[in-house]
Specification:
- The protein has helices spanning 14-32, 37-44, 48-60, 123-139, 178-185, 194-204, 265-268, 270-285, 288-292, 303-311, 315-339, 354-368, 386-400; strands at residues 35-36, 64-69, 79-83, 88-95, 99-105, 111-118, 145-153, 156-157, 164-167, 172-175, 189-193, 214-219, 223-229, 232-233, 343-347, 376-379.
- It is an alpha/beta fold.
- The protein folds into 3 domains: 20-70 and 78-83, Arc Repressor Mutant, subunit A (Orthogonal Bundle), CATH 1.10.10.10; 88-196 and 386-400, 2-Layer Sandwich (Nucleotidyltransferase, domain 5), CATH 3.30.420; 214-384, 2-Layer Sandwich (Nucleotidyltransferase, domain 5).
- The strands form 4 sheets. It has a 5-stranded mixed sheet, sandwiched between helices. Strands 14-13-12-15-16 form a 5-stranded mixed sheet. Strands 1-3-2 form a 3-stranded antiparallel sheet.
- A hairpin with a 3-residue loop joins strand 4 and strand 5.
- The protein is globular, with a radius of gyration of 24 Å.
- Residues 1-11 have low confidence and may be disordered.
Length: 406
């Protein structure tokens, strides 16, 4: 039987102090690059000798590089430091029910290479595909030092083992991606829930970088929520915190893939809107007016098709999106009341029609969240790839944030 992690804090030791100092230096370089060693010492409050030792270690590990010289009125010109975007790389994998995206990113989360491919329904087959594609990517960039692999999944991930517990929309349960991928690639692998990865992306390098309290809501086949509170990702003891998509709105509602009924995501997800549209078209086809003027219709298979229909003025598609917006607003009101974050970001294709859906969401939240919270609800720019950027941020935070005492 595994021992439970201790809840008692431990005293800081010399290793902890070195870890904190390293993170201070790395974050200062990241925020103010290019920056000299002397400036690092001034900003961090560390002794110059300590800064020099840390910088030398970071250069050996290829996290930091010298880029040019600074200008001073007199004396020796200082060498300037930046993150090493040419030699240090991170592989990010965002696994979705239909498609998986893989990127090679540098330490500034700029993509040097990216590719997409079909997601296998068989997790073991998918692990083999991922391992082969990762090996090919590393082989085609021989001059780069690969630091780690970040993986985001649309499901619950155990905080300590990093095993996927259950991903209803993937149909995967109790899957270990970490161990076989590490064995196949020789690289550390970090696995995280997709919504948590999106939240990390938003506060790491997005427009809300530095925000201390934020909720990222991912809307796709299901609904996920990633929570940042006091600058830290909220995972809970087992890593299952934040599963608001499976909070029941109606115990007599439709069955959810999680096994419960009436979950938020069965009303407000992409698949819910598609189902709503198809039911609406079936009802219209049975009406007397429709039978007098028979017309053929094709069922919609995916959410982009539904958005396209609404953009062309299809009334039934527009109503399905409006209903989706109302249910989305109900769940967001719950988040505003319970957490009162500064920002809630919405991630997903639903943001393409945010002029229509966003107005409904805001109205429902105003009606239902009668609090003093001043939460902003903001659509995320999907062109920024928040899910896959979050997989890179997942790796970076391991180095840029000091390890918590345990």
């Amino acid at each position: 039987m595994l021992a439970k992690p201790s809840s008692q804090p431990k005293a800081a030791n010399s290793e902890t102090a070195r870890d904190i100092n390293r993170s201070l230096v790395l974050n200062t370089i990241r925020a103010d690059q290019p920056v000299s060693r002397a400036e690092l010492a001034r900003q961090t409050g560390l002794q110059r000798s300590t800064v020099s030792l840390i910088v030398e270690q970071l250069m050996r590990e290829r996290w930091v590089a010298e880029r040019g010289v600074g200008q001073l009125p007199r004396g020796r010109k200082p060498l300037l430091l930046t993150l090493n975007t040419e030699k240090a790389g991170i592989i990010g994998l965002n696994v979705m029910p239909r498609t998986t995206k893989m990127v090679l990113a540098d330490l500034n989360i700029s993509f040097h290479s990216e590719e997409s491919f079909a997601t296998s329904k068989d997790p073991q087959e998918m692990i083999t595909v991922l391992a082969n594609r990762i090996r090919r990517m590393t082989e085609t960039h021989p001059g780069m030092a690969f630091e780690a692999i970040g993986v985001s999944l649309p499901g619950r991930v155990d905080r300590f083992s990093q095993r996927l517990v259950f991903a209803p929309n993937l149909g995967w349960r109790d899957v270990d991606l970490k161990t076989p991928l590490e064995a196949a690639t020789g690289l550390p692998v970090f696995v995280e829930n997709a919504a948590n990865a999106c939240a990390l992306s938003e506060v790491w390098s997005g427009p809300f970088a530095g925000v201390k309290d934020l909720v990222a809501v991912t809307v796709s086949e299901g609904i996920g929520t990633g929570i940042i509170a006091n600058g830290q990702l909220v995972r809970g003891p087992s890593g299952a915190a934040g599963e608001f998509g499976h909070i029941c709105l109606d115990p007599d509602g439709p069955t959810c893939k999680c096994g419960s009924r009436g979950c938020w995501e069965v009303y407000a997800s992409n698949s819910a809107a598609v189902r709503d549209y198809n039911h609406g078209m079936q009802a219209r086809s049975k009406s007397r007016r429709w039978r007098r003027r028979p017309q053929s219709y094709a069922s919609v298979r995916d959410f982009p098709d539904l958005l396209a229909l609404a953009e062309r003025g299809d009334v039934t598609a527009g109503k399905a999106l409006e209903r989706m917006g109302r249910y989305l607003g109900m769940g967001l009101a719950m988040l505003v009341i319970g957490l009162a974050p500064s920002v809630i970001t919405i991630v997903g294709e639903v943001t393409r029609d945010w002029d229509r859906i966003g107005a409904i969401v805001q109205e429902v939240v105003r009606e239902r969240a009668q609090t003093h919270a001043t939460t902003r609800i903001v659509p995320t720019d999907n062109s920024l790839d928040p899910r896959v950027r979050g997989t890179v941020a997942l790796v970076l935070q391991k180095h840029f944030q000091p390890r918590m005492l345990s």
